Amino acid sequence: MSQPGARPAHLPAPGDYRGAIAWMRKLRAGQIARRPEEGLREHKKRITRQQISDTATWMFVERGFDAVRVADVAEAVGVSEKTVFNYFPTKESLVFDREEEITESFIATLRDRDPSTSPVQAVVAYMSGEEQRYGEVPAEALWMLRAFDELVTSTPALVAAARAMTSRIIAAVAEALAEELRLDPRDPEPQLVARALMALWETRAGSSPPSRRRWPRSSGSTRAIPSRSSSPGRSWRCGRRARHR
Q: pTM, whole model, 2 decimals?
C-alpha cells in the first residue's frame, strides 16, 4: 500500500519523460475506443497517429523542439519518416494534433444545437462533455502540463503555429455561422461570434490544447461573453432561428 502523499506508482515521476510517453500510451488505450462506424484498419491508424503525436510531444519537451528531428520521432515509434508525414503535414502539427477534430466538433456543436440554445450555451455544454471524456488530471501529473506549456510558450515556431491554428478554426466557425445566418463570412457578426467563442474555449482550457487538460468547472469565464438574453446580435440569441426571419 502506498504511503499517504506518495506518488501513485502508475504515474511517471517529474522529469521522467520516457515514463510520460509510456503512461500516455496506456491512458490513450482507454480513451481511443473503436467507433461504431470505424473499421479495424481505420481504428489502428487512429491509434498510430495518436502514438506518434504523444511520443513526439514528450521528445520535444525533453530535448527541445528544434533538437528533435522528425526522423527521430519515427524511429522512436517504429514507423518510417514518410509515415509520420502521412499523418502530420508539418513538424508543428505533431504537437497540435487535434485541430481537425476541434474544428469539426466546434461546427457540429453549433450546427446541431437545439433552436433554443445559443452558440455560447452550446459550446459550454460541449466543453463540459470534453471534461467528462478526458477526466481530471491527477495532481501528480501536473508537472507534465507545466512542461507542455513551457514547450509551447518558449518555442517561437509553436507559438506561431498555435496562432495560425486559432485563426483557421475561427475562419471555419465564422463561415459556418455565416452560412446559417445567410451572411457573408466577412460580415462582422459571424467573425465577432467566432472569435468570442474561440476566446471562451481558450480561457476555459488554459494555454494547453484541450486534449491535455481538464476543463475548469468555474463558469466565471463566460461572464464576459454576451448571453442569449443580453446580446443584440442575431447569432448570439439563436442563429438557427435568426436565419428564417
A: 0.72
* Residue 133 backbone phi and psi in degrees, to 5: -65, -45
Burial of 82 (C-beta count, 10 Å sphere; 0-12/13-18/19+): exposed
CATH top-level class of 98-245? mainly alpha
In the chain, residues under CATH classification 1.10.357 are: 98-245
Stretch(es) of the chain classified as CATH 1.10.10.60: 12-90
- pLDDT per residue over 21-60, tens digit each? 887 777 776 666 677 777 888 888 888 998 999 999 999 9
User: Over 60: is that where the pLDDT of 136 sits?
Assistant: yes
The C-alpha atoms of residue 5 and residue 230 are separated, in whole angstroms, by 47
Number of neighbouring beta carbons within 10 Å of residue 190: 26
12-90, CATH topology level: Arc Repressor Mutant, subunit A (1.10.10)
